[in-house]
């Protein structure tokens, strides 16, 4: 279920954006596993399971598989980690061998090349916000429970794209409990003694960079023993950061980590204002009254810890929330000549009014979709089937789905056109509500705010015989205009995901995503300046 009112029209959301944009003191961003889950593919619990083998080995009959342990689903991640560490020590011999085993398996789980095309925007938005605040002379500290270095990689990537003549903050990377930083990058064209000249990233549970990208910051806090041994240092680090900040965002966390809870409790009433961003889907129930009660109880609990809560409907809205804070820092007031100066809802409504009246009525739109289809065939090295009745060859289809306005009343996507049609469907096309568990792949990519490759089995959920479907896999890419998702380009195949050409290898999929995003952006762009709607 969704919030009764659109998330970006809710008073608490709007006031949070304004408050964060104007925060003069230090901003604290606490980043849990959810911040990089779009890159790693792992929650905290599934990362622990990844340390176990996928299948049984004759040489290690006592080692259970991921599936066997996953079915139990009744233990906390750190409790499960204690059992896993015991098994790994018994099989590796302990000591340095155990460290190497943990290092190698965690790296394999955290840094998967196959998933790079599927990344979302949250990590980049966090670093962009920190850099923008630095430009205004404001400090930002990032605490992360993650081992991965995706935040650092985003910093390196963004800084690498900034011309040398432009100022950019330096970077200080810390490991909780160590007096000296483990990495320092000096600021560019900025006095290092000025406030905000550095962005600080603090690893609470250890740091595990990719191979060849730096040393591991041991210990990696994984099991109950390491949690207990590090608890004092981690709690003190969080507590001090909360007391020194003027505002704190808690992102990608379920508010269940013991050191965080203790630090929140210890600093309640004397620290900064704290705002937690929790997905509404994490409290989902089939009964609306039960879901409402779950949300209310979550608010009461957070209030006892001195935390206010926001409940985005979808994962993509978390990154969008941070992006809106960035835009509010850039633009103090709305300007008719600058679309991105408008609030989110006005921006998307204005895009819709302009696009639907001009580009959306273009009689050549279907031809442009066919051109996209031809490019997809080239990238996948497929030959187009001569007839729709030719079932021996793999066939592809391109669809354009657009965010229909006004967004306050129509929280839906509409299929505007298909490469197989003579003319676009336009307003007569199929429409579907924006919801997390939709059976439509374009909806799922939209609400996640990132590209998705989905199989018909995952979408159908066992409701129908899969042989009845013509299109069996879907590569869907959200399209951004004026800093907001306004549509999705969908590439469908007659083959299942495991056998389709668009999933032949990661390079092919990445090339398709880049091409669909580029051509989709051109398709949904509006040439003339947009103005706020009444």
UniProtKB/TrEMBL annotation:
Source species taxonomy: Bacteria, Bacillati, Actinomycetota, Actinomycetes, Micrococcales
Name of protein: GAF domain-containing protein
SUPFAM superfamilies referenced in this protein's UniProt entry, alphabetically: GAF domain-like (SSF55781)
Gene3D superfamilies hit by this protein: 3.30.450.40
Annotated GAF domain residues: 444-496
